[in-house]
Specification:
The complex is a heterodimer of chains A (about 325) and B (about 290).
Chain A lengths: L2 H26 L7 H16 L17 H26 L2 H21 L1 H4 L13 H4 L3 H28 L1 H11 L1 H6 L4 H27 L12 H11 L4 H20 L10 H20 L26 H6 L5
Helix pairs in contact in A: 1-7, 1-10, 1-11, 1-12, 2-3, 2-10, 3-10, 8-10, 11-12, 11-13
Chain B lengths: L1 H31 L6 H18 L3 H24 L7 H23 L4 E2 L7 E4 L2 E4 H23 L1 H11 L1 H6 L4 H27 L1 E2 L3 H16 L4 H21 L5 H15 L13
Antiparallel strand pairs in B: 1-4, 2-3
Classes of the chains: A mainly alpha (about 325), B mainly alpha (about 290).
Chain lengths: ~325, ~290
């Protein structure tokens, strides 16, 4: 496998983890969260400032510890979840649909401005850097084998998370979230605690975002505001929409299709002299059109979420990639 | 005290631009029940159209007209190509589609003009002392233009058949339809007019700030939404007051802290509003829409 493909696959695995997080809040809980990428960014920033040590002037950022990478990621996830608890508590209490979306858009816009303008936090516009091949020293990895190691780490994380979320999707909690998404009043009338369940889902989604941010930081080595404009989240939404909102396997498939297709396609775009932003801009135009097209023509995605009585069931399914309905019809699954 | 009065003067200018943008947003919402997240791009299209015209001629009126027409055509096109196609779908779906559209338009501008801001070199004129306030000639023109546009809109809404139809549709679309109002046409006309106001607002904003970039419109969207929610979504008259309040808050907050944090203050206002006065500052039981 060439170094190029290792990079592409690692990156796509990380985006797929983000997609899974987004699917919890948007797919299951039904809340159009625009602050999501802010949690990814916060996770990435925190992971870097917790691992790379004190800043050298004129660079400045908070903390500046030299913690081991896994511990830093864990702390980042905890802090991100805390921030999400504040935003979620405000936004989910009685705001829904458009009001919720606008509030979360406001939250990430403010976070974006503050991180850019308030330099002592994360070094403002220049961002933080210096997280080079985390854990390579501890594990005694060479530069060549490190790419494989990190890809393995991301792919394993993705797989473990996918299995856990599939189980959660079929669990009473997963079904409760769907019930609330489809008819909030009915769920409330049956005594379900709507706000509490939505907030739980929101926190889970933010924690996954923070974790993905930690991996992203390890992959990129540095992080600055050009890596996360508030609209970056739309590419994730496009991936989730293409794959199938609410469906774990669909989401992973969709993210892989969208990201790899777009990374590959934009390689062949011509360079326009004097407009360095040409290729990324074309890519964004296509993402926007993809979102509109999917919403219009196939809002359920390539692999729709199984619904109704044939829907996700509790119980361990070892053959994770097989549809539970066809599996039980074939008598292959307990 | 001096600072306070000067700031209030600047706040009036900010509020004038904001009022144009917010009235346009709220008119679209009133007839289509869609929060158009591509609204910021209407401003951007208007600003870029004015930029192109100004490269050829120094005539300010020509630039303003070009901005308004571009915005109007954009409004008409978006209504036909997007909003009507999503008729009958949940509001949030259309909302997400307009967000996708905003991404498309923004990056079409990047493809056409590059990602960097373009400069507007209109003369600001000399500062005048008007009572306790201090405005440049350009500031005064902005406020006069905004007042004129708002007055025209008021007349349009109150004194024409079109205005009556628009208000009827905003109140109850089905009832309007069965009463023989050509709903589809009135909505399209509303999008055209709202687009014109938005394009003009983009022109005014660009001239006041001095530069404009592909993402400037989107950055302005959150402030616009704040003003709109303050006035009550879909209520054109309330929106004017909302713009005044939000414009003042932004200028005052910017004057006494760092103006880069304007957005943060706008957001704080927005959160307080949606939590405590989601129907607007002036929504009272039985108040007319």
């Amino acid at each position: 496998m060439s170094a190029y493909w290792i990079t592409v696959l690692t990156q796509t695995c990380i985006f797929a983890i983000m997609g899974l997080g987004l699917n919890v809040v948007w797919g299951w809980s039904g809340d159009f969260d625009l602050a999501f990428y802010g949690y990814v960014a916060l996770g990435a920033y925190l992971t870097i400032v917790l691992t790379v040590g004190k800043p050298l002037p004129p660079i400045q950022y908070i903390l500046g510890y030299t913690l081991p990478y896994p511990l830093a990621v864990a702390i980042a996830v905890a802090v991100v979840t805390g921030v999400a608890a504040v935003i979620g508590a405000v936004a989910l209490r009685n705001l829904r649909a458009i009001y919720f979306a606008i509030t979360t858009l406001g939250a990430i816009s403010v976070l974006y401005v503050v991180v850019q303008v308030y330099t002592p936090l994360f070094n403002g516009f220049n961002g933080v850097a210096g997280l080079v091949t985390p854990m390579a020293g501890t594990l005694g990895l060479s530069y060549d084998s490190y790419g494989y190691f990190f890809l393995g780490l991301c792919a394993t994380s993705l797989l473990v998370l996918a299995v856990m979320l599939s189980r959660l999707s079929a669990s009473p909690f997963g079904r409760l979230l769907r019930a609330i998404r489809d008819d909030e009043d009915a769920a409330a009338a049956f005594g379900r605690r709507v706000y509490r369940s939505k907030l739980k889902a929101y926190l889970l989604s933010a924690a996954i975002a923070g974790f993905a941010g930690g991996l992203f930081a390890g992959f990129l080595g540095s992080f600055n505001p050009t890596a996360w404009s508030p609209q970056e989240v739309l590419t994730l939404y496009a991936g989730v929409l293409v794959g199938g909102r609410g469906n774990v396997r669909g989401v992973i498939l969709g993210i892989f299709v969208v990201y790899i297709a777009f990374i590959e396609l934009t390689r062949f775009l011509p360079e326009i002299p004097g407009n360095g932003a040409f290729a990324p801009a074309v890519r964004q135009v296509l993402i926007g059109l993809l979102i509109i097209g999917m919403l219009k023509f196939r809002p359920q995605g390539i692999v729709p979420e199984p619904l109704g009585l044939d829907g996700p069931r509790p119980g361990i399914r070892w053959r994770f990639w097989q549809d539970p309905r066809t599996a039980s019809a074939a008598g292959g699954e307990p | 005290m001096e600072t306070l009065l000067l700031t209030i003067g600047f706040g009036l200018v900010t509020a004038s631009i904001l009022a144009l943008s917010a009235v346009s947003f709220t008119l679209q919402y009133a007839v289509s029940r869609v929060a158009n997240l591509a609204h910021g791009e209407f401003l951007a299209l208007g600003a870029y159209a004015a930029y192109l015209v100004q490269k050829g001629t120094p005539n300010v009126a020509a630039a303003a007209l070009a901005a308004a027409l571009t915005g109007g055509v954009a409004g008409l096109t978006v209504n036909f190509a997007l909003i009507e196609r999503f008729a009958g779908r949940p509001a949030i779906v259309t909302f997400i589609a307009t967000l996708g559209l905003s991404l498309v338009l923004q990056n079409v501008l990047v493809v056409g003009f590059g990602a960097a801001n373009v400069a507007y070199t209109i003369s600001q004129g000399s500062p005048h002392k008007v009572g306790p306030f201090q405005w440049t000639s350009a500031d005064i023109m902005v406020m006069v233009a905004a007042l004129t546009v708002v007055a025209l809109l008021f007349l349009l809404l109150r004194a024409t058949t079109f205005g009556t139809s628009l208000r009827a549709i905003a109140d109850n679309r089905e009832l309007a339809r069965v009463s023989g109002i050509p709903v589809r046409r009135v909505i399209a006309q509303t999008w055209f007019i709202a687009g014109m106001v938005a394009g003009f607002a983009g022109f005014v904003l660009a001239e006041t700030v001095g530069t404009f970039g592909p993402t400037s419109g989107f950055s302005y969207l959150l402030i616009t939404i704040t003003a709109t929610v303050a006035g009550g979504l879909g209520r054109p008259y309330g929106t004017l007051t909302g713009a005044l309040v939000v414009g003042m808050v932004l200028e005052l907050a910017g004057a006494y802290t760092n103006s880069s944090y304007e957005l943060a203050f706008a957001f704080a206002v927005l959160v307080l509003l949606v939590l405590f006065r989601p129907n607007g500052l002036f929504a009272f039981r039985g108040a007319p829409a």
